[in-house]
């Protein structure tokens, strides 16, 4: 598309000068000129030709002068750069024109080389503004899509509590706070059968949309594999084989997957490159042994292991991602495992929701004034027992 320029002047010979000066640009379809004899005619042309970006206008004209035209140009919807033409000594009108939004000016008698330089400069400025507006519109569209993606991602994570209102033997609560609009952390919990509850906490490498997409895939595969039956390590192996080789190089998922028998209190779990959970009881806070294997998605055919531990009525499991322990304060110190254990100490009598709130608020207070660098995810399951 040629750059469109409107020349407004009641002197007919200016049109001939412009056409002669820019004949090569016009022939090569680089410039497209429009001409008007007054401000009124100029406004009519602008209403008709939406692609005009530069207006060159004389100040002294019949019907509507150039200064009045400049005032009216502010109502134009497109990007317009105005250049005024006036006598060399008419600085008062030139200053008024600049105050009313003129981009530049040229003086009479017109120096055609200076005229060309000014036009090119005005066109570059208009192009810069149009590019900035286009980028802004694209960013607004992206932000709108990210907001939708955030809603979709959150809708995939269980949000309704109490999670199992008909099962008094357990108390479950969870929260994920994304560092960006969409994150790579996820949690899940679901009934496998009448006696067993599956629980998952995962962390996809990276941030943003790619991590969120892999998170959605991984969560769906884990739930599907878990409901099909099998041990926790068999489930991790099955999901790994489905993902490994298909993910973007360098991307992977750390996963903790546990299955709690709500009748007996027996917990079976597997840690695929992820932190083991803490068990909080009247005896204190202890981290379970890290048993499992490599992160999900790295090596096809990897063999995983699982472990089992007996929970007593009243014990709770605190499952989390590294956004908790690696949260930083203004001094670049990590929140760390010691602070997490201190936060959990004495919480064995609290409800699951209270413990999630307690940890999240403690981490956020520790990191006050520091932008959140990683997703924060907590999943608490209290085994109440029969």
Name of the CATH superfamily of the largest domain: PPM-type phosphatase domain
Main beta sheet strand tally, sense and closure: 6 strands, mixed
Quaternary arrangement of the chains shown?
single chain
Shape: elongated
CATH top level class name of the largest domain: Alpha Beta
CATH topology of the largest domain: Phosphatase 2c, domain 1
Number of helices: 11
Q: Please state the structural category.
A: alpha/beta
Mean pLDDT: 88
Rg calc: 34 Å
Number of E-type strands: 16
What is the straight-line distance between the termini?
Answer: 76 Å
Q: Unreliable runs, pLDDT <50, ≥5 residues?
A: none
Q: Architecture of the largest domain, CATH level 2?
A: 4-Layer Sandwich
Binned, the helix content reads 25-40%
Number of domains: 2
Order of H and E elements: EHHEHEHEHEHEEEHHEEEEEEEHHHE
Q: How large is the share of residues in beta strands?
A: 25-35%
């Amino acid at each position: 598309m040629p750059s469109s320029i409107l020349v407004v002047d009641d002197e007919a010979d200016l049109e001939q000068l412009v056409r002669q000066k820019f004949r090569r640009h016009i022939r090569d379809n680089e410039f497209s000129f429009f001409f008007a004899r007054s401000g009124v005619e100029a406004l009519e042309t602008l209403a008709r030709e939406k692609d005009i970006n530069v207006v060159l206008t004389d100040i002294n004209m019949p019907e509507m002068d150039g200064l009045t035209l400049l005032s009216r140009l502010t109502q134009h919807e497109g990007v317009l750069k105005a250049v005024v033409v006036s006598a060399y000594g008419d600085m008062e009108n030139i200053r008024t024109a600049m105050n009313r939004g003129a981009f530049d000016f040229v003086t009479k008698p017109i120096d055609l080389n200076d005229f060309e330089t000014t036009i090119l400069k005005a066109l570059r400025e208009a192009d810069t503004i149009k590019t900035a507006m286009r980028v802004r519109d694209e960013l607004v569209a992206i932000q709108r899509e990210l907001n939708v993606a955030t809603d979709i991602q959150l809708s995939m994570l269980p949000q309704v509590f109490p999670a199992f209102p008909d099962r008094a033997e357990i108390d479950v609560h969870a929260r994920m706070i994304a560092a960006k609009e969409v994150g790579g952390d996820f949690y899940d919990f679901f009934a496998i059968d009448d006696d067993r509850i599956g629980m998952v906490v995962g962390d996809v490498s990276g941030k943003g949309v790619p991590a969120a997409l892999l998170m959605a895939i991984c969560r769906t595969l884990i739930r599907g594999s878990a409901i099909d039956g099998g041990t926790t390590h068999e489930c991790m192996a099955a999901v790994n084989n489905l993902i490994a080789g298909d993910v973007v190089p360098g991307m992977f998922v750390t996963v903790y997957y546990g299955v709690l028998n709500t009748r007996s209190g027996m917990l079976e779990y597997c840690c695929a490159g992820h932190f083991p959970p803490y068990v909080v009881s009247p005896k204190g806070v202890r981290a379970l042994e890290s048993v499992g294997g490599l992160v999900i998605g790295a090596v096809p055919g990897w063999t995983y292991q699982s472990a089992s531990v007996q929970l007593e009525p009243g014990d709770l499991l605190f499952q989390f991602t590294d956004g908790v322990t690696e949260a930083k304060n203004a001094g670049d110190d990590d929140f760390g495992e010691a602070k997490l254990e201190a936060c959990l100490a004495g919480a064995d009598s609290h409800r699951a929701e209270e413990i999630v709130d307690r940890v999240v608020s403690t981490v956020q207070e520790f990191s006050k004034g520091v932008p959140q660098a990683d997703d924060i995810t907590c999943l608490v399951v209290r085994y109440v027992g029969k």
